[in-house]
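Predicting holo structure, pyridoxal-5'-phosphate bound.
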Amino acid sequence: MREVADRYAIAITPHVASMIVRDESNDPIARQYVPSPAELDTQPAEQADPIGDGAHSPVEGVVHRYPDRVLLKLVNVCAVYCRFCFRREMVGPSKKALSAAAYRAALDYIRARPAIWEVILTGGDPLMVSPRRLHQVMTDLAAIPHVKIVRIHTRLPAVDPKRVNAKLIDAMRANGVTTWLALHANHPREFTDATRDACAAIVDAGIPMVSQSVLLRGVNDDPATLEALMRAFVECRIKPYYLHHGDLAPGTAHLRTTLAEGQTLMQSLRGRISGLCQPEYVLDIPGGYGKSPVGPAYLSTEEGGLRYRVRDYCGDLHVYPPDMEREM
Ligand SMILES: *Cc1c(COP(=O)(O)O)cnc(C)c1O
Ligand code: SF4
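Done. Tokens:
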């Protein structure tokens, strides 16, 4: 563990520790946070910056890949450090937060670009800042007329739900901007009563929530677990948004599935859960080219493109438009 700790940050909250079943050798909660010697194994395809943040960072703390939205990274600390983190080379307790000057420069960058409609607070975990600071950031962004949406990407309600108190929730909102919150959770057991209460308080405050999960080998790479996870989100009024294919972060091969396995799982989810519960399976293309849906294809063409074949939720194929003679 010491060798892993020399390379990557480690942290587990008391709340997460209480969720771990200690005598289970492959507990899906432990697997997400407890370091493994397998992390010392870096594959040739793995990269320090697997999704190419660096290629699109015009000023410190800002990643601007799509015209209408930017990431704003306030801090590089998290309440926990996920063993599969795609920014594992950039986050940790020793990594500096954005300085006051860099923060002002980031705001200037956003203010000068009217195409930026949405600002995504990420990091690190943006909810690690104090409520006072968070509210200042929300107010500063709300004062920029073209910024209409602030999306907060966080793991806090799942890993330290007590921190998500009324003060922090109040700080998430500011007049002139709409707040959305994306919760990162990967296993149904992360939905403890305390986490469900924290999510209810956020949604009751008028902040819509979406989900973000990473497909992880030995954690959630089976249909029953994914089904229970997506149902737990929807029960908490959280719309499943993304299921991320594991990024090529260094030392994470043991936690990654293949794309084919992910597609099979997505196909099985179609047959098991309602449309409300369906996430989109996405791959962040290495090199900074953005996210693309990589779910199974339901539509293919036949007869030189004149007709289609559509796969139904059971996996059976149908011709479209239907061949009326053959049907009768
Ligand atoms: C993931 C990401 C976003 C957000 O993408 P959505 O598809 O809008 O959720 C925006 N900018 C960057 C750089 C990203 O990596
Ligand atoms: S909370 Fe997010 S940024 Fe922090 S370690 Fe986990 S995946 Fe990485």
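The chain is about 30% helix and 20% strand.
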